[in-house]
Amino acid sequence: MKAVAFDYVRASSVEDAVDALGDDNVKVLAGGQSLVPLLNMRLARPAVLVDINRLAELSYLRRDNGNLVIGALTRHRTVERSPLVYEDIPLLAEALKYVGHVSIRNRGTFGGSLAHADPAAELPAVCVALDASLLVQGHDGVREIAARDFFLGPHRTALKPSELLISVRVPVPPAETGYSVQELSPRGNDLALVGAFAAVTVESDGTCAQARIAVAGAGPTPIRAVAVEQALTGQALTDSTIAAAVAELSVDPPDSIHAPASYRREMASVLTRRAIRTAVSR
Ligand SMILES: Cc1cc2nc3c(=O)[nH]c(=O)nc-3n(C[C@H](O)[C@H](O)[C@H](O)COP(=O)(O)OP(=O)(O)OC[C@H]3O[C@@H](n4cnc5c(N)ncnc54)[C@H](O)[C@@H]3O)c2cc1C
């Protein structure tokens, strides 16, 4: 099938792009890895596409005051291979290895993945786990949205149709932080049935100083496992304390053609336990 006819606007600046945005009939085109299939299947029928691919000012990675700041148009592969990401937030580099295939990561963008808001996607879950915040620019200026408030439901976000996501600020965890991504998917590099993302900071005496955990594919949005984090903090990190903490995990996955809800719920616990144990061992 072919997309329905649409008008095409190539933005030459962020302001130009924002000026062209308005209502649901206008869509931003970033890497096109999610939008173009939706257009071709006629599941999306925008009247206008605003192409932001020439906006070099939205493609960057930089350190800023204890954060890593990532421009919305930065390609997945650039983030995955960045030495800054390896040094500061290896959880992000690890998560990106699970995002589709290399050819998809060469085109897909950091901002596109967040704006697309697939509940099983890796980057939204990492951003929720690490307390990232998103900068969006609209007709009235720039506002900041915490990742935990950004995802409202499957493919639904707090972004208004008139707003462009311009950058993402991810706080760099303390140096003594181990990390892990654990995923279950029908085939390698498919979207996950369930995924668990953990960053655990360990004190010199082996107790947990801080845990940041999120689960993907187990509800309408990425789920921050706050109760698990609280149960771990201050505890000696043994198999039994980890198992007791994971018992606090509360997720409500839907049934799907790939697996019933009960299986996904069980796997969310198994993968979360594995992610914490692996993070601690690192
Ligand atoms: C075969 C295949 C496998 C995949 N597997 C995975 C996977 O395992 N995990 C995963 O997470 N993803 C996967 N993806 C999706 C991939 O990560 C996409 O890159 C990502 O979802 C969308 O990014 P994009 O830059 O391509 O955005 P686009 O497709 O261009 O846009 C997606 C949506 O976001 C909006 N948008 C994009 N950028 C902005 C912005 N700056 N401001 C406001 N709105 C914006 C668009 O209007 C559109 O609604 C897969 C894709 C394919 C084709």
TrEMBL record:
PROSITE patterns per UniProt: FAD_PCMH (PS51387)
Domain of life: Bacteria
Matches recorded under InterPro entries: CO_DH_flav_C, CO_DH_flav_C_dom_sf, Diverse_Substr_Oxidored, FAD-bd_PCMH, FAD-bd_PCMH-like_sf, FAD-bd_PCMH_sub1, FAD-bd_PCMH_sub2, Mopterin_DH_FAD-bd
Enzyme Commission code: 1.2.7.4
Protein's name according to its UniProt entry: Carbon-monoxide dehydrogenase medium subunit
Domain FAD-binding PCMH-type: 1-175
A matching Pfam family: FAD_binding_5
GO molecular function terms listed in the Swiss-Prot or TrEMBL record: anaerobic carbon-monoxide dehydrogenase activity
Entry keyword set: FAD, Flavoprotein, Oxidoreductase
The keyword Flavoprotein appears for this protein: yes
Organism: Kibdelosporangium banguiense
